[in-house]
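Tip: read the tokens left to right.
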């Protein structure tokens, strides 16, 4: 009985909807942490949130595709690539935090200011470069920083997407 329940919840449409809810739940948790501890997210944090939302949207779309279709496999690939992209941003953020004494990095202006005042190419260059604010460790959970937690979450979502996408129906 428990195995049937597990199979129903973590497969097919409900599995993808759960992935969607978990991705947006992760963003909601980041907003709760930001609000509760009065933290100002850096451009790398915001970019990771965008990756989580993009991944959530891919999970939502995947919920409405036929499980045996080639489009389902394509969306699984896109989900994994999005999770890996988010993991890359989290690694970059973690790297800045780990080497904040060695690297002179500065986040500079906020993400919204960059979006309104810089061309897209310049904005992405500034975001990826990171900043001193990005190197600051303002909050930890079980000794893990937010980028480390995001990395674990992105990897988990990537594995979950592969499991859903290649599960026998």
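Filled-in amino acids:
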């Amino acid at each position: 009985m428990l195995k049937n329940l597990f199979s129903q919840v973590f497969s097919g449409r409900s599995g993808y909807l759960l992935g969607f809810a978990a991705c947006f739940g992760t963003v909601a948790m980041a907003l709760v942490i930001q609000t509760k501890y009065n933290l100002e997210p850096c451009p790398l944090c915001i970019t990771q949130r965008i990756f989580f939302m993009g991944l959530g949207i891919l999970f939502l779309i995947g919920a409405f595709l036929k499980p045996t279709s080639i489009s389902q496999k394509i969306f699984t690939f896109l989900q994994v690539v999005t999770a890996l992209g988010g993991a890359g941003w989290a690694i970059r953020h973690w790297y800045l935090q780990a080497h904040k004494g060695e690297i002179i990095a500065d986040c500079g202006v906020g993400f919204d200011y960059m979006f309104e005042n810089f061309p897209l190419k310049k904005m992405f260059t500034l975001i990826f470069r990171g900043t001193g604010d990005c190197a600051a460790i303002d909050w930890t959970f079980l000794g893990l920083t937010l980028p480390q937690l995001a990395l674990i979450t992105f990897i988990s979502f990537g594995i979950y997407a592969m499991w859903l996408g290649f599960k026998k129906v």
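The chain has one domain: 10-166. Residues 70-98 form the longest helix (29 residues).
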